[in-house]
């Protein structure tokens, strides 16, 4: 993929604010702080196009990044499972996520981002089951691979794969920090565009 241009287009809290048109969308879902916004930056080779933070709960709205002037969008959803969010905030961001996934009909790929070091949480499992029900194409990204020994990467991906009972869905290691494995990731994404 050649990135000629990448810009932030809009933060949406309701479907009325989603971009017009039918450009394909690649959407990032995952728990708070797992590295969804960092994934967007790394794939685009941009330092801080998407805002990231050490503090979970950084992304509170649905952010659309327009790639190559409408060729496709990266859609960065709010994270779930952030314990410090108030009950009300959890309901609101959950509603944003569900509304988007249920209503948007130009989603070409859902990228579920997990932490390679841990088994998926209950929230991850709920999201995984929800994604299966949507019947939309999806892949699983095991981020933060720089945090473990390179010799363990394959077996940790296998562990997560077994845990979720994945058979056909692609599941790949990633490190937004180290900017490795981006080529495999682009191959998967391009297959769906
Ligand atoms: P929310 O917006 O709260 O949902 O979080 P997010 O999933 O967008 O996470 P974000 O990209 O803001 O990253 C959270 C923290 O994890 C930041 O401090 C990042 O620098 C760090 N981080 C992201 N990816 C990696 C990675 O691959 N390796 C390491 N070591 N840190 C990472
Ligand atoms: Mg974020």
Produce the secondary structure layout.
Blueprint lengths: L5 E7 L12 E6 L5 H9 L17 E6 L4 E5 L10 H17 L3 E9 L6 H13 L3 E6 L9 H12 L6 E3 L8 H11 L1
The structure holds guanosine-5'-triphosphate and magnesium ion.
Describe the structure.
By secondary structure, this protein is α/β, with parallel strands linked by helices. Helix content is 32%, strand content 22%. The chain is built from 5 helices and 7 strands. The chain has a 7-stranded mixed sheet with strand order 1-3-4-2-5-6-7, sandwiched between helices. α4 (153-164) links the parallel β6 and β7. The longest helix is centred in the middle third of the chain and has 17 residues, at 87-103. The radius of gyration is 15 Å and the shape is globular. The chain binds guanosine-5'-triphosphate and magnesium ion. Residues 36-37, 58-59, 76 line the site of magnesium ion.
Report the portion of residues in β strands: 15-25%
Roughly what percent helix? 25-40%
Q: Structural class from helices and strands? A: alpha/beta
The tally of helices reads 5
| Shape descriptor | globular
For the largest sheet, list the strands in their spatial order. Answer: 1-3-4-2-5-6-7
Radius of gyration: 15 Å
Q: Note the main sheet.
A: 7 strands, mixed
Provide the low-confidence segments as ranges.
Answer: none
Give the CA-CA distance, first to last residue. 11 Å
Mean pLDDT: 93
Tally of strands: 7
Q: Give the ordered list of helices and strands.
A: EEHEEHEHEHEH
Bound molecules: guanosine-5'-triphosphate, magnesium ion
